[in-house]
UniProtKB/TrEMBL annotation:
<comment type="function">
    <text>Secreted tripeptidyl-peptidase which degrades proteins at acidic pHs and is involved in virulence.</text>
</comment>
<feature type="active site" description="Charge relay system">
    <location>
        <position position="265"/>
    </location>
</feature>
<keyword id="KW-0106">Calcium</keyword>
<feature type="binding site">
    <location>
        <position position="506"/>
    </location>
    <ligand>
        <name>Ca(2+)</name>
    </ligand>
</feature>
<feature type="compositionally biased region" description="Basic and acidic residues">
    <location>
        <begin position="1"/>
        <end position="10"/>
    </location>
</feature>
<dbReference type="GO" id="GO:0046872">
    <property type="term" value="F:metal ion binding"/>
</dbReference>
<keyword id="KW-0720">Serine protease</keyword>
<keyword id="KW-0325">Glycoprotein</keyword>
<dbReference type="GO" id="GO:0006508">
    <property type="term" value="P:proteolysis"/>
</dbReference>
<feature type="binding site">
    <location>
        <position position="526"/>
    </location>
    <ligand>
        <name>Ca(2+)</name>
    </ligand>
</feature>
<keyword id="KW-0645">Protease</keyword>
<feature type="region of interest" description="Disordered">
    <location>
        <begin position="1"/>
        <end position="22"/>
    </location>
</feature>
<dbReference type="InterPro" id="IPR015366">
    <property type="entry name" value="S53_propep"/>
</dbReference>
<keyword id="KW-0865">Zymogen</keyword>
<feature type="binding site">
    <location>
        <position position="524"/>
    </location>
    <ligand>
        <name>Ca(2+)</name>
    </ligand>
</feature>
<protein>
    <recommendedName>
        <fullName>tripeptidyl-peptidase II</fullName>
        <ecNumber>3.4.14.10</ecNumber>
    </recommendedName>
</protein>
<feature type="binding site">
    <location>
        <position position="505"/>
    </location>
    <ligand>
        <name>Ca(2+)</name>
    </ligand>
</feature>
Amino acid sequence: MHLHERRDDVPDGFTSKGPAPGDQTLQLRIALVQNDIEGLQNKLLDVSTPSSAQYGQWLSKEEVGAFMTPKPETTTVVNEWLSANGLNPTVLSPFGDWIGFQMTVSHANELFDADFTTFVHDASGQNAIRTMAYSIPTSLKGHVELVHPTITSTFFPQVPGPNDVGLPIISTPAKVIVPDVAPASCDTAMTPTCLQQLYGIPATVATQPSNKLAVSGFISQFANQADLTSFLQTFRPDLPSTNTFTLQTIDGGTNTQVLGRAGIEADLDIQYTIGVASGVPNFFISVGNKFQDGALQGFLDIINFLSGESAPPQVLTTSYGQNENTISLALANSLCNAYAALGARGVSILFASGDGGVSGSQSATCTTFVPTFPSGCPFMTSVGATQNVNPETSASFSSGGFSNYFGTPSYQTAAKSAYLSTLGSTNAGKFNTSGRGFPDVAAAGVNFEIMWKGSAVLVDGTSCSSPTFASIVSLLNDRLIAAGKPVLGFLNPFLYSTGASALNDITTGSNPGCSTNGFPATTGWDPVTGLGTPNWTKLLTAVGL
């Protein structure tokens, strides 16, 4: 047996209750080593870099599959091992690189030389079964990436509330807006009209039905149509109030329309993607809780679901995340590679960077800076937050920093080097100077007006910023498709080259945390607001329109 993964300490906020019951059933997954992940990553950069002769030549599902599908011998040796141990795996991904099966705790302990233990989450009282280490047969080395859930420390999906990862913070008291009356100032109440004015976003309706914008929905956050209708009547009366979204569900997801169960995150994301990306077909993907895999379940399954589609949406925005140190390096790599695979299909993947400044996804006590995931992954676009209109400045909660798992991608080398040179010795020893920096860009994220459970409220967070930036990308894609050009796809190589001058550079503010002032925003890229906020007119020029 070969020790495959381990962690040395019980995760913060959890307490061991002792060995898990031997007859308890576990739902486990194995990630198989893919055929040529390095080749896929190189291909992704080729088709995403404006100076490349292959720019915009997005790959087909089959072309991506040639990189992602495990070698036949990998599939054979793992399946034979599982079969010999009485297990019948099910393929869980379109390329066969993830398989799943169920077994008892006692069987798992024996098969993986593990010690599955019951842990209790101190804050919620919920239990989860995990092991601090596991092994695989030496014959499977080079064929198995990881087994999950095993050592990852994020045992439960986040629950709605102001202390959650990437979720908006409800302003107190909630501000009730009189319908059809414009706010006195966009500094105190941000609306679609304010965003149009701030970034030059057109109100004209998109024309291309093949252009799609998808919103991720997790943890029973339901997008409510009645709230959306009220929002459009109040804040976008020029659009039909009957505008809606197409629901897609996976892992047993649902989307109840009981007004009292409307989700503040889901309402925010849907109202601002429909309210800003005027006329772009909108999809809400509700991910349920079918498996026992904690955080991996939704994040991976939604990407596998979209990767299996013949025509996935060109933009996906997600307002959830977690601290990077809550998952294993192997798991982080597997998820990041899944983003690369979907990005190579021409999909722009955007995530909120988090709301804890340099202390992580939410404000927390710390001694060294806490990067968030998946913002550290180099194959997606991380969105930070700003506040105010004149002048626009960074929001103090905007999570940003440098990954401890992922190195600096080639497209970011120059921008990051320039920032570190300016930073000097500030915060020395508190972050990984060789890590991938985030966020990549930013957008407004304070005092967003939404309709929630029939009332107007204000919300803050990078949860506001990601759907805003995603909406602008979707509108650009609409123009590109109409002109017979390829969509933007994986954004970062474009943003750090041709697109950099089309962004409003935010040079004031910082993101405090860990008993420091965090990182200062400055000229050029910074780990607070990235390269800056969108400028529609300049972006049109930058994409060749």
